[in-house]
């Protein structure tokens, strides 16, 4: 009996890069770690992300991990990295008897943008294309994104791309500086995206 391939390996089968009017989305390469560090090391950026790298070595070690790199994409504007995206494919929950039907059917999305490129709608454009890739190129059935509820910029991106709020969790996320905070989760189904498109 063969072991099923990792759902994440499906990204290897796509024809990168993907382009929109203003952004180019491609797989993250080791050579991107330096340009990404230039904004990921800024406290304003890492305030709402899952970690704040202590220094460049910490960034390279953690972000350079093969499993992390496999789910990281970068988006460029005018040939410069404007931000990064996460597309983490995983199984939907299913009962054991039908678990094979849920293998690799949904993804969690994430993003960060260099403040030098903020305020132009580039993150929204990149996330909108990321959703299209998830549904059209990968054939996924559902995408989700979550954030601290106080992270209004990310919430606005989720709403602009047509995601709907599914959960508001009271004091369920522990922030390194602010303590226990509320968390939110947004989601979108492929059929909702097709109807809205």
Automatic annotation (TrEMBL):
Look up the coiled coil feature and give its residue ranges. Answer: none
Which SUPFAM superfamilies has this protein been placed in?
Acyl-CoA N-acyltransferases (Nat) (SSF55729)
Domain N-acetyltransferase: where?
23-191
The organism's place on the tree of life at top rank: Bacteria
Q: Which PROSITE patterns match?
A: GNAT
Instruction: Return the InterPro entries for the record.
Output: Acyl_CoA_acyltransferase (IPR016181), GNAT_dom (IPR000182), N-acetyltransferase (IPR051531)
User: Which Gene3D superfamilies does its entry note?
Assistant: 3.40.630.30
The protein's name: GNAT family N-acetyltransferase
Provenance organism: Myceligenerans salitolerans
């Amino acid at each position: 009996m063969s072991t099923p391939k990792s759902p994440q390996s499906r990204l290897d089968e796509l024809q990168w890069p993907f382009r929109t009017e203003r952004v180019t989305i491609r797989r993250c390469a080791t050579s991107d770690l330096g340009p990404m560090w230039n904004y990921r090391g800024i406290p304003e950026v890492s305030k709402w992300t899952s970690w704040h790298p202590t220094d460049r070595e910490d960034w390279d070690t953690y972000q350079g991990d093969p499993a992390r790199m496999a789910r990281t994409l970068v988006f460029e504007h005018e040939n410069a990295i404007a931000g990064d995206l996460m597309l983490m494919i995983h199984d939907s929950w299913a009962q054991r008897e039908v678990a094979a039907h849920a293998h690799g059917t949904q993804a969690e999305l994430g993003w960060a943008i260099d403040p030098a490129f903020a305020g132009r709608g580039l993150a929204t454009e990149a996330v909108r294309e990321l959703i299209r890739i998830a549904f059209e190129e990968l054939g996924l059935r559902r995408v989700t994104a979550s954030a601290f509820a106080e992270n209004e910029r990310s919430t606005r991106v989720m709403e602009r791309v047509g995601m709907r709020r599914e959960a508001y969790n009271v004091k369920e996320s522990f922030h390194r500086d602010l303590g226990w905070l509320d968390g939110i989760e947004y989601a979108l189904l492929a059929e909702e995206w097709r109807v809205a498109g």
